[in-house]
Please model this.
Amino acid sequence: MRKLMITMALLLPVAALADAPSRLITVTGAGQIAAAPDMATISLGVTSEGATSSEAMKENSAQVHMILESLAQAGIEPRDIQTNSLNLSPRWSQTKTGSNDRQIVGFVARNGVQVRVRALGDLSDVLGAAVDTGANQLNGLQFGLSDPKAHTDDARRAAVSDARDKAELYAQAAGVSLGSVVTITENGGYAPQPRMMEAAMMARDAVPVAEGEVTVNVTVTMVFEITD
Model:
């Protein structure tokens, strides 16, 4: 009796596996939707030097305060302005090769601010105002969508359609019939890429920028049954 019960226990998983589909096609589909951006995120900052740490920070803080005031006057709300970096470091004297006789000759303070511009028509004025009031670093400019859901859903539909087209092609080439969908896995979504701007473009007359388009990319992996 004990031997029979053990045999039955071993056979049950085998029987369960027999019911699972064993002939499958796995494909990956991609969907891409291009859209005009409706917002931008700017990463800018101020670098200041001073003979002492307090002097460098004081000068830096004064410049940042002026920038924040100019952004407020340009219509940027407080919720769209965020400090994303703050750094104070010594500035060392230059020495001859092989010499360790270095001294602190000053300090460098850096303050980075991230600004979200919801009205793209104001972007050039916002950049100009920041530059005019002391911003001497522009670390990145990223265009995006305030609500990408609708475009992401369109990209998902396109990705599923692409995956099904591939699966049908493979099934036809292999001389089999495509069955039901077993699984769908989403692999990626909306991810706009930042545009980097060089320090040389900080001049007031170089501030105008082109918005172009942003793309919403989605990839899905789909598994289909194969039927005769």
